From TrEMBL:
GO terms for cellular component: cytoplasm. Pathway: Amino-acid biosynthesis; L-proline biosynthesis; L-proline from L-glutamate 5-semialdehyde: step 1/1. It holds the Pfam family F420_oxidored. It catalyses: L-proline + NADP(+) = (S)-1-pyrroline-5-carboxylate + NADPH + 2 H(+); L-proline + NAD(+) = (S)-1-pyrroline-5-carboxylate + NADH + 2 H(+). PANTHER family: PYRROLINE-5-CARBOXYLATE REDUCTASE, PYRROLINE-5-CARBOXYLATE REDUCTASE 3. It is an enzyme of class 1 (oxidoreductase). InterPro entries: 6-PGluconate_DH-like_C_sf (IPR008927), NAD(P)-bd_dom_sf (IPR036291), P5C_Rdtase_cat_N (IPR028939), P5CR_dimer (IPR029036), Pyrroline-COOH_reductase (IPR000304). This is Pyrroline-5-carboxylate reductase. One of its GO terms (biological process) is L-proline biosynthetic process. Keywords: Amino-acid biosynthesis, Cytoplasm, NADP, Oxidoreductase, Proline biosynthesis. NADP(+) binds at I6, G7, A8, G9, N10, M11, A68, V69, K70, P71. Its main location: cytoplasm. The keyword Cytoplasm applies.
């Protein structure tokens, strides 16, 4: 089995690296294609895949083709690969908002997996939601799932709507966490801590809270109550967040990402 990754950016390289650790593949079976000359020079230095710049040299050999370019480059990629495709090949797209229908129409392939990963995939801690068309056999879906799992965990969803919805939760979600971290670091600096101190205070707080959550079967709300003493400091902070509707605003932000994914799909 041979896998081709189109687009050697954050996601494409993450998958290439993850898949290089898969028992299903060895290094000669992973191909990566990118258009940028500068990037290609770097790609040729990497030993765990073969780098390509011409679609004709790699697309025909691939059984599974990961498409990891920005959504606005999808049309040009479809146009360029179309000539070299055969109906047995499986396209796996990680592009936000690009629908299965668009991928099928653009490539002529019927076997399509639409996936939504997230950035922690870079350290094997990703979460990828995915859905496969009915033309993808169960065995093929299992192979793709195994490949996706080389970057973390995955969930198979039952309708394409949940790919857009998970974009709003897990796909874009790491940025919401970084937003919160950034705000807390700015508050720490405002309080007089050095940048290094603020970074440690915040990063260890996030790490510890997430570890607690992962180790016990308790909701975030119940954990909040454990931290907050009646009339104490935490309650003052939580009351301030409630007064400013922070809960609702975070939900609105997640829906803004979800809606944007749907909107991208209409283009
Ligand atoms: N980053 C994230 O957290 C997540 C991203 N995604 C999705 O993953 C996809 C890729 O995102 P990301 O990795 O961040 O993007 P990047 O810009 O880092 O990577 C895309 C790569 O594709 C290259 N490229 C552009 N056009 C072509 C082409 N015609 N043929 C081959 N390569 C091409 C780009 O080159 P150049 O830079 O020269 O244009 C770039 O190297 C997007 O569709 C995004 O929606 C999904 C979930 C999370
Ligand atoms: O911002 C984006 O559009 C992509 C999809 C999810 C994360 N990054």
């Amino acid at each position: 089995m041979k896998v081709l990754v189109i687009g050697a950016g954050n996601m494409g390289l993450t998958y290439a690296e993850g898949m290089s650790k898969s028992k299903r593949l060895n290094n000669e079976n992973i191909m990566v294609l990118d258009k940028s000359e500068e990037k290609l020079k770097e790609l040729h230095q990497i030993s765990y895949f073969d780098a390509f710049e011409d679609f004709k040299d790699c697309v025909p050999q691939a059984d599974i083709i990961f498409i990891a370019v920005k959504p606005y480059h999808s049309e040009s990629v479809f146009e360029e690969i179309k000539l070299f495709l055969n109906p047995k090949q499986i396209a796996v797209s990680v592009m936000a908002g690009v629908t299965i229908q668009t991928i099928q129409e653009g490539t002529g392939l019927t076997k399509v997996v639409r996936a939504m990963p997230n950035l922690p995939a870079q350290i094997g801690q990703g979460l990828t939601s995915f859905i496969a068309t009915k033309e993808v056999s169960n065995d093929e879906a299992l192979i793709v799932e195994d490949l996706l799992n080389t970057t973390g965990k995955s969930i198979q969803v039952t309708s394409e709507r949940f790919i857009d919805a998970s974009t709003g939760i897990s796909g874009s979600g790491p940025a919401y966490v970084f937003y919160f971290m950034q705000s807390m670091m700015e508050a720490a600096t405002e309080m007089g801590f050095s940048k290094e101190e603020g970074t440690l205070l915040v990063s260890q707080t996030f790490k510890g809270a997430v570890e607690l959550f992962n180790q016990y079967n308790i909701t975030p709300k119940a954990w909040m109550e454990k931290v907050a003493s009646k009339g104490g400091t935490t309650q003052a902070a939580l009351d301030s967040m409630d007064a400013n509707n922070v809960n609702k605003l975070i939900q609105e932000a997640a829906f803004a990402a979800f809606n944007r994914a749907v909107e991208l799909g209409k283009k």
